[in-house]
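In the previous chapter we treated chains in isolation. Here, by contrast, the input contains two separate entities that must be folded as one system, with a combined length of 465 residues.
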Amino acid sequence: MMDNKMIVEGSLQKVDGGFAFLGRLPYYRGLGLSMIEDIMVSVDGVAIPRENIRFSVRGKTYTLDQMETVYDDRWNFGEKALIIALKDDGLSPGEHKIEFAVRNRVSYLPFVPTTKDSKNLALAA
Amino acid sequence: MAGTIKRGVSLYSYQNETFQGKMSLEDCIRISAELGAKGIEIIGEQSFWGWPECGVAQDDVDNWHRLIEKYGCTPVSHDFMLDYKRYKGREMPFDEQVASVRKDIDFGARLGMKYIRALVSIAPEVLVAAAPYAEEKGIKILIEVHAPLHFDHPWIIRHAEAFEKFGSDALGFLPDMGMFVFAFPTVWKEKFMRMGVPKTIADYVEKAYEDRVLSEYVILNVQQMGGTGPSIAMAETLRHNAAFEPKRMLDYMHRIHNIHGKFYHMNEDYVEPSIPYDEIVKVLQQGGYQGYICSEYEGNRWIEDAEEPDSVEQVRRQQVMLARLLGEETVPTLATPVAA
């Protein structure tokens, strides 16, 4: 659900040491950060290593490993988080294919869902 | 006892719009009130950012009460989740689960709710342990009986036995009408066909559902028809959905206090072709039910890949259907634009 709304249109931007975009949790509610098992990002078909991904909401930034033990912060329903990908050589201006997947640990589900979205986003020069 | 069932909406129904910021909490409550659906149910953490890990500011709770009063509504239920898998690799300890339910009882009470909804995955012992506190706060904890579970399933019977043994009126059931899917929903079939299921297989699964063929046979037959991937997934929906019997609610009426009016698609003739609401309303009236039926639109996730869901129109159609079935004389009608 909400798969096609995960990546926020027009949100690709340059940041120090890489690029970032806005992402939403594909779910009808929010989740405590400890239950976000993985966030996967690739650009133009090349995966960003897990240790180079950062998650940022309301001014707080976390590595994915840190998130696993964060019990006092959330990714709220519909909340636009800044998904940061550290990439030494940066990203060239123009259009890029961004792929974004999230794996959640949901207490009541008899499986561990992974939901993904893919969009072409333009990076301003 | 006809005429005593009340109409409500779970704001879950508007999730496609609220997720995208196209409808505010006020829009959701105003639209529901205009349709005469004055009972408001929420998933606490969907309608209130921060709940449960970060808490909710008193200003937000005050705003909720202001809106409920402004539109003449009644708070019905706070649906809580209890994330007992919060810690990676280990389940939340029993005492912490009970403490967590107590927090949701407090939150429900702050919002003026009569009920809090528990998911069916929660153990009966946890709810029993939280029941005395619920009684103290004037809240009933209702376990949501939801497909693939149903009133004859041993897990639900275990809950019922635990509730009776403990004897508290603070424990009960909230049946989800999605356990009475008596025809394969068209929006499901169409989505599976968009995912690549051949028409012959889609038609077969739909017909097999109508014929009440055992899910495992249907899955095998689809495999033998050459079905893979999405075809198998379509057949596997029969493991989780079935046409259970609405009359089975009658044995539990003394503990049924809220109803999820689940639906996947309301057509232009105000009919949900996959769920027998005429029969359901008759059974509830026969059982003397006097609570709310809260609309719970869940067609959104089945069509969003092809079109933008119109949740308000879907809820409007279901409310027109419910008003008719309940013998109301006024047809529910929207008076103002969706987003004010």
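The first strand of chain B starts at residue 6 and ends at 10. Chain B has two domains: 6-180+243-325, 186-237. Compare these points with the single-chain example from earlier in the chapter.
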